[in-house]
Amino acid sequence: MNRVAVVGAGNTAFKARHMDKTFPRLAYEAVRDCLEDAGASPGDVESAVYGIYNDFFEHCAMPDHHVHYLLGLARRPAVRVTTGGATGGYAVRAAFAEVASGLHDVVLVVGVEKVADVSNVFEMVKSITFAADPFFEAHYHGSPAGSYGGAILWHMENYGTTEEDMARVVVKNKGNARNNPDAQSPMELTVEDVLASPTVIYPLKILDHCLNSEGAAAILLAGEEAAGRFARDPVWITGIGASTESGRQAERDDPGSSLFPAVRRSAVAAYAMAGIEDPRSAVKVAEVYDAFSGVEICLYEEFGLCGWGEGARFLREGSASMGGSNPVNPSGGLIGGEHAIGATGVYQVAEVARQVRGVAGARQVPGADIGIAQSMGGARGAYSVTVVLEG
Amino acid sequence: MPDEIDPRLEPIREKEGAALMPDRWKVDYLASMGELSRFYIELKENARLMGTRCPACGSVYFWPRSWCHDCYVDCEWVEMPPRGTITIFGRVDISLSEMRTEVPFYQGGVLLEGARYPVIAILKPADPAVLRAGLPVQAEFLPPEERTGRTRDFYFVPEE
Lengths: 391, 160
Ligand SMILES: [Zn+2]
Known about the structure:
Chain A is an alpha/beta fold. Helix content of chain A is 37%, strand content 18%. Chain A has helices at residues 23-38, 55-58, 63-70, 87-100, 121-129, 144-159, 163-176, 191-195, 224-227, 261-274, 279-282, 293-302, 311-316, 333-337, 341-357; strands at 4-11, 47-51, 78-81, 106-114, 199-201, 204-205, 214-223, 235-244, 285-287, 370-377, 383-390. In chain B, a hairpin with a 6-residue loop joins strand 3 (50-53) and strand 4 (60-61). The complex binds zinc ion.
C-alpha cells in the first residue's frame, strides 16, 4: 500500500446562510483555496471524490456531477459518497483508497452542503428523517436528536454524567470557535446560559445541538512520489479506520461498554494501522463529531483518551480544553465551528492537517505532531471514520 | 391544503441582493411492502404483532425480517406476545417532525418477549415518572377505524 499525504487544504467560511453563493460556488472556493495551498493547478487532479450528504438540501439527485463539470474536471473520474454525518470522512477514505492502491497519484476530496436552501427547519429535519428505516421506524417521523438522546441518558444514569457536564462541552466548543475565523458560532457562554436554553429532547437543549451550516471544504491527497511536486510539506495519513453498525438504533449486537460501537471500532482500526498503543499520550489534538454536547463526552471514552465512565471527569479536569493534555475540537467542532454535513469530515481532516503543520493560528495546539479526525452518521453513529494524521 | 400555491409556479423573491427561487420536491409513493406485507395487514386488520423466526438459529425478529442475516436462510412468521420490557426511553419536548406530533411525548426501546432486538416505539404511560429501563410494558392498539397499518398503530403502557 502506498503512503498517502494531505498536500493541500481549503475551506469557505461556515455560515447559517451563504445567501450570495450557490453550492457549486462554495465547492469552487474551497477547491480554489485548496489547490493554491498545495501549489497545484486543476490539471494536477487525476480523480475527485465528493462528499455531499443529502439530495434534498441541494434539491438535486446528482449534485456531484454538476460540481465536477463546473470545476473543470470533466473527463476525469469522479464519485460521490453519502453516509450521513460520516459523508466527509468516508469521502476521505474513498480518496485515500484510490491513492493507497496506486490507482491514482493525486486525488481531490470535496465536501459541500447548502442546507438552508430548504425553506425552514421543519422541512430540513423532515429531509434528514427520510434516512430512517422506511419499513418500520420512519412511520414515527422521529427527530435525529432522539437517536443520540438515549445514549446520553444511559451515560448519565450509569456514570453520573450531568447536564452541567454537557453544558461544559458547549462552553468549551463555542469558546474555542472564537479562535477560528471560519467558525459559524463563536460565543462566550456560561454553564448557566446553556442550561437555560429550551429543551428539545430531554436532556438535550437547543445549545447542546450541533449547528446547521452552509459551506465547503477540500483537501488534496497525493501518493509519496507525487507529494514532492507540491508546495506544502506533506501531512501523512498514517491510520484510517472505518466501521458500521445497524441502521436501526436499538438493534446492536453485544456492544460491550461502547455506546458508539462503530466509532470504537473505527478508532481501534485507525490506531492499529498508525501503530498507536497509548492514545492518551500519542493523540495531541482531536477534531471529533460533537453532534450533541453529551456525545463528545462519550467520544473521549470511545477514543481511549480516558477509561469507560471517565469522560465527564476528563472534561472537568480540563484535559479536553485548549492547554489540556488532549485538546478536543479546537476549531469549535460541530457545536461552535460548523456542521455543513458533507463538508464536516473533510473540514476536520483539513483542520487536523493544519494543526500537525503548525499553521492553525490562534487555535494551534503546541507540539501537535499527531492528531485524529472523526465523523459519524446514521442512527446513533451507525457509520464512523477515524483518520490519524502525522507530520 | 388544496388551495396552496405550488412553489414551482411562484416568482422569485429578492433578499440581500440574492434571488430566492421557490422550489419543491414532492414525490408520492405506493410502496409495495413485498415479503413483509403480512406484518402490516395483521396489524391493521387484527391488531396482531407479527414477527419472524429463523429456523436455523431460532432468533426471533421484531421488526420482522424475511431472512436471517446470520444464517442466510428464510425466516417463518410467528405471532409475538404483545408484552415486553423498556430498554431505553426519552421524552420529546419539541417535535421537529412534519407530523407536528403533540408534545411532550415519550418514545423508547421495547424488547418484546422472546425477541432478539428491541424496537423503537411510542410509550404512553399514565404517569411518566414510572418509566425506567426494565419496566414491563404491554402493547395497546388504536381502535380499528384509526389504524392505518403503520407502526404508529400501537404503543406501549406499563403492564397491569
Ligand atoms: Zn439464524
